[in-house]
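It is worth pausing here to work through a concrete case rather than discussing structure prediction in the abstract. The textbook approach is simple: state the sequence, then state the predicted structure, then interpret. We follow exactly that order.
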Amino acid sequence: MSKSLGNVVDPRDVIAGASLQFPHGIPECGADALRMALCSHNVHGDDVRLDVGTALNYRHFCNKIWNAVKFVLAALGPKFVPQPPEETVPRHPMDRWVLSRLARAAGECGRRMEA
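Step two, the predicted structure:
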């Protein structure tokens, strides 16, 4: 990656936003949105061409997920205590299938993050 002045965007500017150096500024996206944008790239070389608009879209996506989780937790109530995963037994075949796919996806994500 070229380190020439003006060719590189500081990740801290994407996380916190910046207005001085750029004509239209960089909107505040947050660390989670930046992580998701970087993880969404299939990089085979040293360069990552990250569009700030992509990080902004992931910010909106993360916000929707956060709001959905808040809604579900509010609907469950303050006395809800989840069962440990080891004690959860799926009753229907579709539940077993969904949980198997979730376990596979989680394993694949973990394996790729470690690589």
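Step three, interpretation. Residues 35 and 55 are 8 Å apart (CA to CA). Helices lie at 11-16, 31-39, 52-76, 93-114.
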